[in-house]
């Protein structure tokens, strides 16, 4: 069977999210670097695979899939023994609830602030007003997270799931601009510190995502 190919940019957030899940599950993969700075993701050859001209997508032995969370779910579903997607109906419902919370209550502000902070990290112009406004919104959302995490270890219960992994790489990004937003609430801090200490996240800290065939 051919090795899974991940088409993306080594420093891009969504590529990093997929690579983190691949690393979590010890799935060998080849990173195929997409030159987004020169618009490779908008070429006809690329949009034949990803019609919206976005990164990443995967080619798993001829099976093409795009959208980050869909890719992560697919990878986890191929490894049910990991428990990253619970199979018990109630546990699965709680997982889906947590995954929905991430999309609805975390990602909108975390991604907007995170993109600006990433630009700052690369020495580009950062709109600090956007960062400040979005972190203020996110801080209110994290009050809900604090309530949830005061009763359980992870966002979907006491077991680690894909819903937790969905929060990276934006969680470290929003914490990178000098804000204590991820550590000022005790249970959020506990959860966040555990999340960013996972080997799967730390694996690509230096130099970004890279082809990984051995773990």
From TrEMBL:
Identify which top EC class this enzyme belongs to.
transferase
SUPFAM superfamilies found in the cross-reference section: GST C-terminal domain-like, Thioredoxin-like
Instruction: Pinpoint the GST C-terminal domain residues.
Output: 88-215
- EC number assigned by the record: 2.5.1.18
Q: Which UniProt keywords apply?
A: Transferase
Q: Where is the GST N-terminal domain?
A: 2-83
Q: GO molecular function terms here? A: glutathione binding; glutathione transferase activity
Q: Which GO terms describe its cellular component?
A: cytoplasm
Q: Name one Pfam family in it.
A: GST_N
Biological processes per GO annotation: glutathione metabolic process
Presence of the UniProt keyword Cytoplasm in the record: no
**Family, as annotated:** Belongs to the GST superfamily.
**Protein name, per record:** glutathione transferase
């Amino acid at each position: 069977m051919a090795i899974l190919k991940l088409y993306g940019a080594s420093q891009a957030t969504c590529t990093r999210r997929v690579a983190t899940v691949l690393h979590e599950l010890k799935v060998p993969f080849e990173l195929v670097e997409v030159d987004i700075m020169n618009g490779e993701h908008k070429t006809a050859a690329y949009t034949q695979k990803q019609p919206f001209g976005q990164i990443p997508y995967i080619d798993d032995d001829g099976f093409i899939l795009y959208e980050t969370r869909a890719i992560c779910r697919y990878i986890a579903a191929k490894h049910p023994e990991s428990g990253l997607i619970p199979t018990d109906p109630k546990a699965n419902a709680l997982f889906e609830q947590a995954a929905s919370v991430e999309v609805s209550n975390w990602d909108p502000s975390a991604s907007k602030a995170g993109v600006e902070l990433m630009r700052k990290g690369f020495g580009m112009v950062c709109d600090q007003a956007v960062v400040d406004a979005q972190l203020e919104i996110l801080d209110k959302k994290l009050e809900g997270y604090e309530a949830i995490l005061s009763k359980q270890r992870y966002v979907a219960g006491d077991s680690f799931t894909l819903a937790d992994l969905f929060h990276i790489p934006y969680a470290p990004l929003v914490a990178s601009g000098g804000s204590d937003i991820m550590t000022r609430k005790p249970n959020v801090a506990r959860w966040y510190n555990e999340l960013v200490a996972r080997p799967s996240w730390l694996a690509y800290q230096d130099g970004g995502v890279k082809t990984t065939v051995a773990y």
